[in-house]
Write a structure and sequence with these properties.
With 430 residues, the protein is mainly alpha-helical. It is 51% helix and 7% strand. Bound molecules: s-citryldethia Coenzyme A (SDX).
Length: 430
């Protein structure tokens, strides 16, 4: 019979042969963790893990990712099922409440978001104060932080009901703030939300409508928003809804851990998402495909991506967790094929993208580093076909991801053992 205890790991410090044991905590799915909460007290050393490549920052039951298998589940349900069989609003409800809504729950949730989709006139004036050239992401992160000022006094952070109401409020207002940011960046009048339209249709309406809420007139009649466009964008929102402890979600949790207003935590997440290594990659992918310009130039750029002395990277490729195809990229690739004819997707960009993909997936450099297309590699071509301007691509990511950030905020708040985020360091100074 082994003398080893079960569910612990033993650490031997070879400097003085001291032996330490640490508990192993098992997950309901995926890797276990070593509980090192007492490591420093017991051993006098910290762990070091730049970029947190092997560090679990919290316990969570919201989203599960298996990077080896290329698997993604929200509340245990596979992303392919959710993206093909449910609406984004049903997925939002699932992420917030752990279960899919019944008909009445969905209707109540939908109506509440519609009625909360308006923003205060003073906030509209604040957005108007930005220069016309302002990037929508700058306006979005600033206006969400500013929104905290409009909902501050009466928020009792320890009141579950008030906090949940705050959650619905920010999910409802983000599309309006994003649409206002877009129209401000063009210097054109804002279009107010229309409570007769669904969440996703309403967003496209606020982007496209003319003053008075009229849609574009053409010789063939009125250019109404097509059902296939709504379904495509709804699927994109679902695919972006949550993704475990990614960089921006970690920021949201860290800001919330100080007791700051939930809206400034969301605003911090928006700022973190903007980076091109993260959510900003979708905008960079299209810029890169347009820069490559033709399938004839692909080899040159693949060589640049492989050159260690060239900081050029293939945007939309690689992922910290997925060492296999990003399952969301697969859904988007299928969606591209479905929409190609009906939405007249840009076939040149698609040809360049598929040439990059086929070369990269057979090239030793990418294979040895497990570099596969991620969600950002395919979203841009579809967003372009939905007549969404490139500077709005990451704002689309924000609209989809907002519910994930809110779900993590609520989970953090509900955890009585949650602490302020305060990592240590390896000091290398004088
Ligand atoms: C998102 O975390 C999430 O879940 C994020 C996200 C979400 O839903 O929240 O999934 C959304 O952010 C998707 C990722 C979007 N970013 C991009 O597409 C930007 C391009 N990709 C890379 O910058 C990079 O792959 C990251 C940032 C995504 C991941 O970086 P890692 O895990 O820190 O990996 P690394 O930088 O250490 O790279 C490992 C090796 C390096 O080569 P060597 O030093 O070993 O020789 O792979 C190389 C890198 O140079 N490499 C690339 C590359 N990505 C990594 N080489 C060329 N092109 C690339 N895209």
């Amino acid at each position: 019979m082994s003398t080893l205890q079960t569910n612990t790991m033993t650490l031997i410090d070879n400097r003085d042969s001291k032996v330490y044991e640490f508990k192993i905590l098992d997950a309901t799915r995926g890797p276990s963790v070593i509980d090192i909460a007492t490591l420093y007290k017991d051993t006098g050393v910290f762990t070091y893990d730049s970029g947190y490549t092997a560090t679990a920052s919290c316990k969570s039951s919201i989203t599960y990712i298996d990077g080896e298998k290329g698997e993604l589940r929200y509340r245990g349900i596979d992303i392919n099922t959710l993206a093909t069989k449910y609406t984004y609003l049903e997925v939002c409800y699932l992420l917030l409440h752990s279960v899919l809504p019944n008909k009445k729950e969905l209707l109540d949730f939908d109506l509440e978001l519609r009625h909360r989709s308006f923003i205060e006139e003073d906030l509209k004036r604040l957005i108007n104060a930005f220069p016309d050239s302002a990037h929508p992401m700058s306006i979005l992160s600033s206006s969400v932080a500013a929104l905290a000022s409009f909902h501050y006094e009466h928020l009792d952070m320890n009141n579950e009901k008030e906090y949940a109401e705050m959650a619905h409020r920010i999910i409802a207002k983000i599309p309006t703030l994003a649409a206002f940011a877009y129209r401000k960046s063009l210097g054109i009048p804002f279009i107010y939300p229309d409570i007769d339209r669904s969440f996703t249709e309403n967003f496209l309406y606020m982007l496209r409508a003319y003053p008075g809420g009229k849609m574009k007139r053409t010789a063939d009649g009125i250019e109404e928003i097509k059902a296939i466009e709504i379904k495509a964008l709804d699927t994109i929102f679902t695919l972006h809804a949550d993704h475990e402890q990614n960089a921006s979600t970690t920021v949201v949790r860290n800001v919330a851990s100080t007791g700051a207003h939930p809206f400034v935590a969301i605003s911090s997440g928006i700022s973190a998402l903007w980076g091109r290594a993260h959510g900003g990659a979708n905008e960079s992918v299209i810029m890169q495909l347009e820069m490559i310009g033709s399938v004839d130039n692909v080899d040159k750029y693949i060589a640049k991506a492989k050159d260690p002395n060239d900081d050029f990277r293939l945007m939309g490729f690689g992922h910290r967790v997925y060492k296999n195809f990003d399952p969301r990229a697969k859904v988007l690739k299928d969606l591209q094929d479905q929409l190609k004819e009906e939405l007249h997707l840009d076939s040149n960009l698609m040809e360049i993208a598929s040439k990059i993909e086929s070369i990269a997936l057979s090239d030793e450099y990418f294979i040895s580093r497990n570099l596969y297309p991620n969600i950002d590699f395919y979203s841009g071509v579809i967003l372009t076909a939905l007549k969404i301007d490139r500077p709005m691509f990451t704002a689309i990511f924000v609209i989809g991801r907002c519910v994930g950030w809110v779900a993590h905020l609520l989970e953090f708040k509900a955890d009585a053992k949650s602490k302020i985020a305060r990592p240590r360091q390896l000091y290398t100074g004088k």
